[in-house]
Amino acid sequence: MLRQEFDHLKKLCRIDCSAEEEAEVLNSLQKVIAYFEEIKAVDTEGVQSCNYVLQAMLKNQMRPDQCTDVLSRDRFLGNTSDQIGGMVRVPPVLKE
Which of 42, 47, 58, 93 is 20 to 30 Å from the Cα of 25, by its Cα? Predict the structure, then answer.
């Protein structure tokens, strides 16, 4: 059954893979399915559902802003490999 589902998914996703890759994927899927079967065996009767595992971490952890000395332009540009007109020169990102 797993093989048929995998073949169907390959067709839907237009995935082309070798026989070795197929065997590896099928082996991995069988391990995942076996693990899910183990999880199904756990008794969860009476356990309240949980939407957020780390509920306490949902609030923003922010530190207060602190004003410090700013690096001078000359010192900053002294650390760059290339500069032009007081600005850092970087390789072009967009090409025509």
Answer: 42
